[in-house]
Amino acid sequence: MAAAAPAGKLAENLLHFARVLRAAGVPVGPAQVADALVAVQLIGVERRDDWYAALAALFLTRHEQRPLFDQAFHVFWRAPDLLGQAQRLLLPQITGRLPRPRELSPRLAQAFAPSGLEQPRVGAPAEQQEFDAVLEFSARERLQSRDFEQMTPDEWAVARRYAGRLALPLRPVLTRRWRPGEPGAVDMRQTLRASLRCGGEPVLLRRRRQVRRTPPLVALCDISGSMHRYTRVLLHFLHALGQQQKLSVFLFGTRLSNITRCLRARDVDDAMRAVSRAVPDWSGGTRIGPCLEQFNRVWARRMLTQRAAVLLVTDGLDRAEPGVLQAAMQHLRLASRQILWLNPLLRYEGFEPKAAGIRVMLPLVDRHLPAHNLDSLAQLAQVLRGA
C-alpha cells in the first residue's frame, strides 16, 4: 500500500500539468495523460531529460507548441519546489537539467495564475509548499456568481479564461441521411439488388442506419455599449466551441460583421486581436432589426442549413422600428432549428419585458437564458449539450 501513494501523486501532478498546458492553449486529452503516466513509469524517469522527452512526444502535436511546453515544464517541475519534492519521493537519482527560459509566455503566466497553479516560493517553509500542486479554484468559485459588469480587470481576465474551458460540443442529432451499417434496419432496396447475384435469393440482408451529425451553430452577438462587455467574455466561450464543431459567429451594433474566420485561429489571443481589427463599431449604438434583416438576406441561406441552431446574444434594446425587428425574427425563426436568446437583463430578479424590442422577440425564441456571469455560461454549456 505504501508504494501506491507516490504513483497516485505522480498521476495527480501529471493531470495538473496537462491542465496547465490546456489553459495555455496546448490541447491535451485524457488519453494522452493516461499514456504519459504509463510512459514515465516504464522509463523509470531516472533522468529529467527522459521525462521531458516522453511528455513532449505525447503532449505536443504542433511545432509551435514547443516553446510553451518548455516553459511550462520548467516552471511546473522545477527544483527545489515541485520537482525537488518529486525527486525525493519518486525519482531519487534524476540528473540533467533544461535551460531556464528567459521570459515566461503571457499565455503561460495566465495559465498558472490566478486560476491555475499557485507558484511555490523558493525558500518558503516545507509545510507551506504544496507538493500536491492542487489547482487554486477558490478565486474561480468567488467569481461564479459575480456580474461581468462588476468585475475588476484582473477578475475579468480570469473569467474570460474560464469561459473558454466551459465549451462543450453539441450532441449529435439524427439527420435524414442513411448509410450502410451494422446494426441497423434492413435495407430492402440493397438487399433485393444484392439478391440478383444469387438468382433472386436474399442470401445476405443489407442493413442501414441513420447518420448522426453535430448540428451547426450560428451566434449573433450584440456589441452595443450595454452589451460589449458580456459579448467579449462570450467570445472566449465561442472560440473554444468553434475548435470542436461547425460554428459561425456574427457581431452587430450599427452594422453586421462576420468574424467566423477570425475565431478560427487556434490561439485565443490571436483570435481576439483579429476580431478587434475586423469590427469597427464596438460599444456604439444598436440596430438589432436591420442587422438581423441583413443576416437573413445575405447569410441565412448558407448558414442556417442542416438544422442549425441560433444563439442570439442581446438585451433586446433596439433603436429601430419594432416592425423591422419582428419581420426579421419571424424569418429567423422559420429558417433555424431553434433560437436560444441570451439576455444579461435576466440578472435582475424583477425583470419584466417592458421594452418594445424585448416584447417582439420573446414569443419567437425557444429559450430565454441569462448571460451575465460564469454560472450562466455553465448553464448555457449544458443547454447546448442537450440541444
TrEMBL record:
Q: Which Pfam families match?
A: VWA_CoxE
User: Gene3D superfamilies this protein is in?
Assistant: von Willebrand factor, type A domain (3.40.50.410)
The protein depicted here goes by the name: VWFA domain-containing protein
Q: Which organism is it from?
A: Pandoraea thiooxydans
